[in-house]
Amino acid sequence: DSGEIIVDGENVTNYDEREFEEVRRKVTMVFQSGALFDSLTVSDNIAFPLEDQPGLTPDDIDAYVAKLAKLLEVENVLDKLPGELSTGMRRAVSIARALAQNPEAILYDEPTTMVDPIMAAHMGDLISRLKEAFHKTSIVVTHDTHLARKLADKVVFLQDGKSTVFNSWAEFENSKDPFFHNFLMQDKLIPALDVTL
């Protein structure tokens, strides 16, 4: 209801749809649901952002799709439709499509929701590897503190419409604020599953 939205140092609060096109080239989102096109194969979903790129031949697109599919471990399902995939696989395809857009930043919306603990740990490992490989800013919205602990360079905690910024997970854990202390104490009751596949 109030405030400003700053993207890459630019105030975009009152941008119209045309002005937002440039912003959307910089930041892409991996939706909780995957938001894939149901009628397109996995390969076509990943290729979708590449179709309107000038100078790319069909062979270039196929090669880049193959590279991303291998990196995201979905190379064996390229001919399948999204409806034939598990939630975790759909999310991996969604990440591949986001990377195909070559954004400066990727916003992950609850990447470990609705997946089993092994897939959740795998997603965390995957996001971490991609962050290192592509040097892209990763913004991860999550209730999964085990994932946040694994990935976070900074923590922004939203509570009652206000945000508190911590410059590291350690700073968050060492907060003297009673709310954060109690939050972390309750969270420790839920065991972490740290799995590397």
Question: How is the secondary structure organized here?
Answer:
Elements (H helix, E strand, L loop, with lengths): L5 E2 L2 E2 L5 H10 E4 L11 H6 L10 H14 L15 H14 L4 E5 L7 H18 L2 E5 L3 H7 L3 E5 L2 E5 L2 H5 L4 H10 L10
Parallel strand pairs: 3-4, 4-5
Antiparallel strand pairs: 1-2, 6-7
Helix pairs in contact: 3-4
Quick gist of this model?
This protein has 197 residues and is α/β, with parallel strands linked by helices. The protein has helices at 17-26, 42-47, 58-71, 87-100, 117-134, 145-151, 169-173, 178-187; strands spanning 6-7, 10-11, 27-30, 105-109, 137-141, 155-159, 162-166.
Task: Please provide a written account of the structure.
The structure is a single chain. 43% of the residues lie in helices and 14% in strands. It has 197 residues and is α/β, with parallel strands linked by helices. The strands form three sheets. It has a three-stranded parallel β-sheet. It has a two-stranded antiparallel sheet with strand order 1-2. β4, α5 and β5 form a beta-alpha-beta unit. The chain starts with 5 loop residues before the first strand and ends in a 10-residue tail after the last helix.
Features:
two-stranded antiparallel ribbon, 14% strand, 197 residues, single chain, globular, 43% helix, 8 helices, alpha/beta
The description of the largest β-sheet is: 3 strands, parallel
Uncertain spans: none
Radius of gyration: 18 Å
Strand coverage percent: 5-15%
Which secondary-structure class do the elements indicate?
alpha/beta
Q: Mean of the pLDDT scores?
A: 86
Strand tally: 7
Biggest sheet strand order reads 3-4-5
H and E string: EEHEHHHEHEHEEHH
| Shape label | globular
Helix content: 40-55%
Distance between the termini: 44 Å
Number of helices: 8
